[in-house]
Inverse folding.
Protein backbone atom coordinates (compact mmCIF):
# COMPACT_ATOMS: atom_id res chain seq x y z
CA UNK A 1 0.00 0.00 0.00
CA UNK A 2 1.22 3.45 -0.87
CA UNK A 3 2.27 5.81 1.90
CA UNK A 4 0.13 8.88 1.26
CA UNK A 5 0.91 10.79 4.42
CA UNK A 6 2.23 14.34 4.04
CA UNK A 7 5.98 14.59 3.72
CA UNK A 8 8.36 17.34 4.65
CA UNK A 9 9.76 19.32 1.74
CA UNK A 10 13.21 18.72 3.19
CA UNK A 11 12.74 14.99 2.61
CA UNK A 12 11.93 15.64 -1.05
CA UNK A 13 14.99 17.83 -1.60
CA UNK A 14 17.53 15.89 0.47
CA UNK A 15 21.09 15.70 -0.77
CA UNK A 16 21.29 12.98 -3.42
CA UNK A 17 24.67 11.77 -2.13
CA UNK A 18 23.32 10.89 1.31
CA UNK A 19 20.24 9.01 0.12
CA UNK A 20 21.26 7.72 -3.30
CA UNK A 21 18.45 9.54 -5.05
CA UNK A 22 15.73 11.85 -3.86
CA UNK A 23 12.04 11.01 -4.24
CA UNK A 24 11.67 13.79 -6.81
CA UNK A 25 14.47 12.29 -8.89
CA UNK A 26 12.75 8.90 -8.76
CA UNK A 27 9.46 10.46 -9.89
CA UNK A 28 11.21 12.33 -12.69
CA UNK A 29 13.00 9.19 -13.86
CA UNK A 30 9.73 7.22 -13.87
CA UNK A 31 7.95 10.01 -15.79
CA UNK A 32 10.67 10.13 -18.43
CA UNK A 33 10.53 6.34 -18.78
CA UNK A 34 6.73 6.50 -19.22
CA UNK A 35 7.07 9.17 -21.92
CA UNK A 36 9.55 7.03 -23.84
CA UNK A 37 7.33 3.97 -23.39
CA UNK A 38 4.33 5.99 -24.60
CA UNK A 39 6.19 6.94 -27.79
CA UNK A 40 7.14 3.31 -28.36
CA UNK A 41 3.61 2.03 -27.77
CA UNK A 42 2.07 4.66 -30.06
CA UNK A 43 4.52 3.73 -32.81
CA UNK A 44 3.20 0.15 -32.63
CA UNK A 45 -0.49 1.09 -32.71
CA UNK A 46 -2.58 2.08 -35.75
CA UNK A 47 -2.68 5.82 -36.40
CA UNK A 48 -6.39 6.19 -35.61
CA UNK A 49 -5.75 5.05 -32.02
CA UNK A 50 -3.00 7.59 -31.30
CA UNK A 51 -5.17 10.47 -30.05
CA UNK A 52 -7.44 8.21 -27.99
CA UNK A 53 -4.97 6.19 -25.93
CA UNK A 54 -1.78 6.61 -23.95
CA UNK A 55 0.47 4.86 -21.45
CA UNK A 56 -0.71 5.55 -17.91
CA UNK A 57 1.78 3.51 -15.88
CA UNK A 58 4.12 0.56 -15.79
CA UNK A 59 4.29 -1.12 -12.42
CA UNK A 60 4.91 -4.70 -11.27
CA UNK A 61 5.42 -5.91 -14.85
CA UNK A 62 1.96 -4.66 -15.86
CA UNK A 63 1.57 -1.96 -18.50
CA UNK A 64 -1.49 0.21 -17.90
CA UNK A 65 -2.94 1.95 -20.94
CA UNK A 66 -5.71 4.54 -20.94
CA UNK A 67 -8.42 4.80 -23.57
CA UNK A 68 -10.84 7.67 -24.08
CA UNK A 69 -14.01 5.58 -23.96
CA UNK A 70 -15.28 2.01 -24.14
CA UNK A 71 -15.28 1.85 -27.93
CA UNK A 72 -11.63 2.88 -28.15
CA UNK A 73 -10.83 0.46 -25.33
CA UNK A 74 -12.41 -2.35 -27.36
CA UNK A 75 -10.43 -1.34 -30.43
CA UNK A 76 -7.27 -1.25 -28.34
CA UNK A 77 -7.97 -4.75 -26.98
CA UNK A 78 -7.71 -6.11 -30.52
CA UNK A 79 -4.16 -4.80 -30.65
CA UNK A 80 -3.02 -6.31 -27.32
CA UNK A 81 -1.59 -9.63 -28.64
CA UNK A 82 0.67 -7.93 -31.18
CA UNK A 83 1.55 -5.15 -28.77
CA UNK A 84 2.37 -7.58 -25.98
CA UNK A 85 4.62 -9.79 -28.09
CA UNK A 86 6.42 -6.83 -29.70
CA UNK A 87 6.99 -5.04 -26.41
CA UNK A 88 8.28 -8.25 -24.79
CA UNK A 89 10.72 -8.93 -27.59
CA UNK A 90 12.01 -5.37 -28.09
CA UNK A 91 11.54 -3.18 -25.03
CA UNK A 92 10.12 -4.84 -21.89
CA UNK A 93 11.10 -8.52 -21.60
CA UNK A 94 9.60 -8.65 -18.09
CA UNK A 95 6.14 -7.45 -19.27
CA UNK A 96 3.51 -9.89 -18.00
CA UNK A 97 0.27 -8.25 -19.12
CA UNK A 98 -1.42 -5.13 -20.42
CA UNK A 99 -4.33 -3.56 -18.55
CA UNK A 100 -6.62 -0.98 -20.16
CA UNK A 101 -8.52 1.64 -18.21
CA UNK A 102 -11.03 4.20 -19.43
CA UNK A 103 -10.09 7.82 -18.81
CA UNK A 104 -12.90 10.14 -19.94
CA UNK A 105 -10.70 13.20 -19.52
CA UNK A 106 -8.56 11.87 -22.35
CA UNK A 107 -11.65 11.82 -24.56
CA UNK A 108 -12.57 15.37 -23.60
CA UNK A 109 -9.04 16.59 -24.29
CA UNK A 110 -9.02 14.85 -27.67
CA UNK A 111 -12.45 16.21 -28.61
CA UNK A 112 -11.40 19.73 -27.72
CA UNK A 113 -8.20 19.41 -29.75
CA UNK A 114 -10.08 17.91 -32.67
CA UNK A 115 -12.52 20.83 -32.72
CA UNK A 116 -9.77 23.41 -32.47
CA UNK A 117 -10.40 24.43 -28.88
CA UNK A 118 -7.46 25.52 -26.81
CA UNK A 119 -7.33 26.18 -23.12
CA UNK A 120 -5.45 29.43 -23.71
CA UNK A 121 -8.27 31.04 -25.67
CA UNK A 122 -11.20 31.76 -23.42
CA UNK A 123 -13.31 33.01 -26.32
CA UNK A 124 -13.02 29.80 -28.36
CA UNK A 125 -16.18 28.23 -26.96
CA UNK A 126 -18.08 31.53 -27.20
CA UNK A 127 -17.15 31.89 -30.87
CA UNK A 128 -18.14 28.31 -31.63
CA UNK A 129 -21.53 28.76 -29.94
CA UNK A 130 -22.31 31.46 -32.49
CA UNK A 131 -21.74 28.93 -35.29
CA UNK A 132 -24.06 26.30 -33.79
CA UNK A 133 -27.53 25.91 -35.30
CA UNK A 134 -30.38 27.59 -33.47
CA UNK A 135 -33.17 25.51 -31.97
CA UNK A 136 -36.70 26.59 -31.22
CA UNK A 137 -39.22 25.28 -28.75
CA UNK A 138 -42.60 24.92 -30.42
CA UNK A 139 -45.73 26.35 -28.84
CA UNK A 140 -47.20 22.83 -28.62
CA UNK A 141 -44.18 21.69 -26.63
CA UNK A 142 -44.51 24.75 -24.40
CA UNK A 143 -48.17 23.93 -23.70
CA UNK A 144 -47.20 20.37 -22.80
CA UNK A 145 -44.52 21.65 -20.44
CA UNK A 146 -47.01 24.00 -18.76
CA UNK A 147 -49.52 21.16 -18.26
CA UNK A 148 -46.73 19.03 -16.79
CA UNK A 149 -45.64 21.91 -14.54
CA UNK A 150 -49.14 22.13 -13.05
CA UNK A 151 -48.74 18.61 -11.65
CA UNK A 152 -45.09 18.93 -10.58
CA UNK A 153 -43.38 19.89 -7.33
CA UNK A 154 -42.64 23.59 -6.86
CA UNK A 155 -38.95 23.49 -7.79
CA UNK A 156 -39.56 21.51 -10.98
CA UNK A 157 -42.63 23.62 -11.75
CA UNK A 158 -40.56 26.83 -11.86
CA UNK A 159 -38.00 25.28 -14.16
CA UNK A 160 -40.59 23.83 -16.52
CA UNK A 161 -42.40 27.17 -16.71
CA UNK A 162 -39.14 28.97 -17.43
CA UNK A 163 -38.41 26.45 -20.19
CA UNK A 164 -41.90 26.85 -21.64
CA UNK A 165 -41.39 30.63 -21.74
CA UNK A 166 -38.69 30.07 -24.36
CA UNK A 167 -41.28 28.97 -26.94
CA UNK A 168 -40.78 30.82 -30.18
CA UNK A 169 -37.44 32.28 -29.11
CA UNK A 170 -34.32 31.10 -30.84
CA UNK A 171 -32.11 29.32 -28.33
CA UNK A 172 -28.60 28.13 -28.97
CA UNK A 173 -27.52 24.55 -28.29
CA UNK A 174 -25.29 25.79 -25.49
CA UNK A 175 -26.56 26.65 -22.03
CA UNK A 176 -27.91 30.14 -21.69
CA UNK A 177 -26.33 32.42 -19.12
CA UNK A 178 -28.65 33.28 -16.27
Amino acid sequence: MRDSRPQSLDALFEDAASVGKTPLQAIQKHAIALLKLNRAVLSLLPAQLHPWCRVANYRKQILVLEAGNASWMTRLRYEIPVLLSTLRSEILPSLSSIDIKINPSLMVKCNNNAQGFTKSSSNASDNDNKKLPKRQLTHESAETLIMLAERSPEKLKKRLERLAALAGEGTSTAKKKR
